[in-house]
Amino acid sequence: MPALPPDPSPWRRLTVGVPGTEFEARPPGQYAFDHPDTECDGWSTPELTVRFASVRGAKHRYYRQPRQDAARVSMHEASGTVVFAVADGVSDAANSELGALEACRAALERTLHLLSAGPGPLDFPAVGRHAAERLRQLTEWQLNDRDPEPAEVANWYATTLVTGVVRPEPGGFVVELCRIGDSGAWLLDRSDGCYHPLFATKTGSDTLLVSNEVTPLPTVPDPIEQIRVRLAPHQALLVGTDGFADPLGDGDGQVGALFTRHLTEPPSPLWLAQVLDFSRETFDDDRTLLVVWPRDPAVAR
């Protein structure tokens, strides 16, 4: 019988600057089994590669609370379009972890339906309303079929949402996305490591006052915040919650350098989760990051 190779060293948690306190994560509540501590996924179409990871923050690990972030991604098979949603449940809401997950599911359902209905710009207000209606239905069930007020929906399931698509088109790729709340999106220039925010940030160099105020789902703003932009071959699209955005800042510090190094090429989904779970003091929120890379036609399979 051939000798087995030695066991590889276990992955050690990456640290950035001064690390946070290390401890074994505590279990969340007994009914939080649908919201695991860590979640990741990844795959490729002929044109695009996708990875996402979502990890529970140190605060929730210590206080026995579930991960309140969520992400979901799919492919619209007829068009080769990648469809995604990232959500950050508002901590004051009673079941925000479920609100985040259901908002992602509802956004993907509606977007896939719109893509199947035919070409043209996506109706993002309709996507937002569909997600808000899902949260209203969940609240109605909690209230024994009584029609809830919007404030009651928010008290149960309030969540941010960034959702959209990456479409392959003649001449390149197009990103279309919208957001409700304060989660973020960036284009990472893999040639120089610069992060270009697609929405206003609360930690950018031009921000005079940091605010934690957020208007999440079930509110659907009018007009809804949305953007359409080209995705160049040397770029990657990043969509993340503020657990990633806050330590990233402008992207010109140690956290930005860490992710530039590991996102130049698509890592394995497990390694993305490992990197996302970096330790740095004072940054203890849940973190979720979804990344989409254009594939090199010369090496695509």
How does this structure look, described?
- Helices cover 26% and strands 27% of the residues.
- It is an alpha+beta fold.
- The protein has one domain (38-294): Phosphatase 2c, domain 1.
- Strands 1-2-11-10-7-8 form a 6-stranded antiparallel β-sheet. A 5-stranded antiparallel β-sheet has the order 3-4-5-6-9, covered by helices on one side.
- Helix 2 (96-117) packs across helix 3.
- The protein is globular and about 65 Å long.
- It starts with 37 loop residues before the first strand and ends in a 7-residue tail after the last strand.
- Residues 206-211 have low confidence and may be disordered.
Topology record:
Blueprint: E1 38-44, E2 48-55, H1 58-62, E3 69-76, E4 81-88, H2 96-117, H3 124-142, H4 150-157, E5 161-169, E6 172-180, E7 184-189, E8 194-197, E9 225-231, E10 235-240, H5 242-248, H6 254-263, H7 269-276, E11 287-294
Antiparallel strand pairs: 1-2, 2-11, 3-4, 4-5, 5-6, 6-9, 7-8, 7-10, 10-11
Helix pairs in contact: 2-3, 3-4
